[in-house]
Amino acid sequence: MMEAASSGANSAALIGKFVVIGAGLIGGSLAKGLRLRGQCREVIAVVRRAETAEAALAEGVADRAVLDIADVAAELGANDVVFIAVPTLAVEPVLAQLKSLLSPTVVITDGASVKGSVAAAARRVYGCLPPQLVLGHPIAGSEKSGVTAANPDLYVDHRVILTPTDETSPEHLQTVRNMWLSVGAEVLDMPIDEHDQVLGATSHLPHAIAYSLVDTLAHDIDSPNIFRYAAGGFRDFTRIASSDPVMWHDIMKANSAQVVRSLDQFMDNLARMRQAIADGDGEYLLDTFTRAKKARDKYTQAAVKSSKS
Ligand SMILES: NC(=O)C1=CN([C@@H]2O[C@H](COP(=O)(O)OP(=O)(O)OC[C@H]3O[C@@H](n4cnc5c(N)ncnc54)[C@H](O)[C@@H]3O)[C@@H](O)[C@H]2O)C=CC1
Ligand SMILES: O=C(O)C(=O)Cc1ccc(O)cc1
């Protein structure tokens, strides 16, 4: 076990011990945000490698770092929170370990990008959705990953979606809501299915398209050094293809039905555009581009307004 210098945590903190399993971009940012704002008495990082433990302490992400949740589980109780921030398909083995180790008074929450698969994993492990489990998803992040990318202000003015069910404990839900509010996020609730449908279309589909586009240009188009001639539009459109491959492998598998549905709609529309370009159908192209520009301008104006309010 390794320890850092004190973060100056206050005794009236919102949360007792905050345990983050997977101290990367998402877990590390929440841990650092809570720690620097004095919103928890202690942050404990559970990591897989000694180097990550050292980095978590050096980056100010945690007060203590351990290699196994079993090292700290017995000291956790009411008002303590365990945040699971590992790739989506790695949540199930983590839950299987937590089941035998944690008191039901401890809040368990997560940040995985797909909620239906995590809920199904919890049902397989616990036989139900345990009341202490509050599923969530911060709609904030970037193409960066790892503990060195942790940013205490990552969640300021960003939305966090919680997906409580009738089985969720209202007290545990409130603790998780207050936790996110305390790092500057806007919190909203949504049914699990709606979450996966909306995020399948707005986040998972664009990532699939960006990866495919870059791969097409890199491997299928017969022109060496093609990226040398790329302009800003290419950079804007493809930033997200630099995201972590394991994370996105897990998301596509975990939300495959919704992503396939969105991909089918997109491929139909793309095929229609291909035909219009082949036919020289300027009316179709102008109509489509004008409609899309209007929708995108409306979205960016609304995003600017909500970040100012
Ligand atoms: N990157 C982003 O922009 C966003 C990611 N998410 C979700 O948050 C979760 C974490 O993503 P990031 O923080 O971006 O990834 P990351 O790669 O920065 O961090 C994940 C951490 O989990 C560790 N890890 C992996 N498997 C583990 C296991 N079995 N046990 C313990 N640790 C394990 C990795 O070593 C790494 O330190 C994922 O489920 C992702 O889908 C949610 C919102 C945004
Ligand atoms: O890099 C970006 O712009 C993202 O889209 C970040 C992101 C990745 C995964 C999520 O589940 C939510 C947000």
TrEMBL record:
Residues 16-307 form the Prephenate/arogenate dehydrogenase domain. InterPro entries: 6-PGluconate_DH-like_C_sf, NAD(P)-bd_dom_sf, PDH_C, PDH_N, Preph/Arog_dehydrog, Prephen_DH. Pathway: Amino-acid biosynthesis; L-tyrosine biosynthesis; (4-hydroxyphenyl)pyruvate from prephenate (NAD(+) route): step 1/1. It catalyses: prephenate + NAD(+) = 3-(4-hydroxyphenyl)pyruvate + CO2 + NADH. Its EC number is 1.3.1.12. GO terms for molecular function: NAD+ binding; prephenate dehydrogenase (NAD+) activity; prephenate dehydrogenase (NADP+) activity. GO terms for biological process: tyrosine biosynthetic process. Belongs to the prephenate/arogenate dehydrogenase family. This is prephenate dehydrogenase.
